[in-house]
TrEMBL record:
<dbReference type="GO" id="GO:0061711">
    <property type="term" value="F:tRNA N(6)-L-threonylcarbamoyladenine synthase activity"/>
</dbReference>
<protein>
    <submittedName>
        <fullName>tRNA (Adenosine(37)-N6)-threonylcarbamoyltransferase complex dimerization subunit type 1 TsaB</fullName>
        <ecNumber>2.3.1.234</ecNumber>
    </submittedName>
</protein>
<keyword id="KW-0012">Acyltransferase</keyword>
<keyword id="KW-0808">Transferase</keyword>
<dbReference type="Pfam" id="PF00814">
    <property type="entry name" value="TsaD"/>
</dbReference>
<dbReference type="InterPro" id="IPR043129">
    <property type="entry name" value="ATPase_NBD"/>
</dbReference>
<dbReference type="InterPro" id="IPR000905">
    <property type="entry name" value="Gcp-like_dom"/>
</dbReference>
<dbReference type="InterPro" id="IPR022496">
    <property type="entry name" value="T6A_TsaB"/>
</dbReference>
<feature type="domain" description="Gcp-like">
    <location>
        <begin position="34"/>
        <end position="148"/>
    </location>
</feature>
Amino acid sequence: MLVLVVDSSTPAVTAALVEITTDGVAPRAQRQTVDARAHGELLAPQVDAVLAEAGARPTDLTAIVAGLGPGPFTGLRVGLVTAATMGQVLGIPTYGVCSLDAFGRATAGAGRVLAASDARRREIYWAVYDTSGERLAGPNVDTPAAAAEQAAELSVDVAVGEGAQRYVAQLDLPLLAEPGYPPAYALAELAAERVLAGAPGERLTPLYLRRPDAVAASTRKPVLP
């Protein structure tokens, strides 16, 4: 089953094609560009590029897997709208995965792991995973210091992700160099059971965790001076 994976929950804009079978997930093609200000400009061309590299067409896709975040409002919305629109047009199911869960999956066996991405405003999105990759806490948005306190209570061993790299001193944990961003293959693995079972498609509900910076005006502005 040929599956498209997209994630725009972090500064990394990711599009990948994977083959999902009963034997596991096999990568076919991937594009990832780190640019926090260009999610809208980058994702669609990257989807086209991975399809071209694999010699596939959109109609060859069986399903679409999308990272649900948490992530900043504008960037995260790009990936989810792209996935939902393609799923609707192609008539194929879409499946959502918490983007931080991909870190837990990718670092299974490394002990208790705090996965973190940059939430801006000097905060991080974070979650904690056990040695099997199962989530123990989160996802939450906090200052690095607050996350560090909770990580200590949960006896976390290491930290991973670009948020952890940015605030390594405040988290005061050993740092895994990789992965810096949610791995596409791990997102696919987390959705593989649903894909193989032909489960009904899901509404892709974003994990914003906080309100966007832009809000509607509370009062009307006068037209005349």
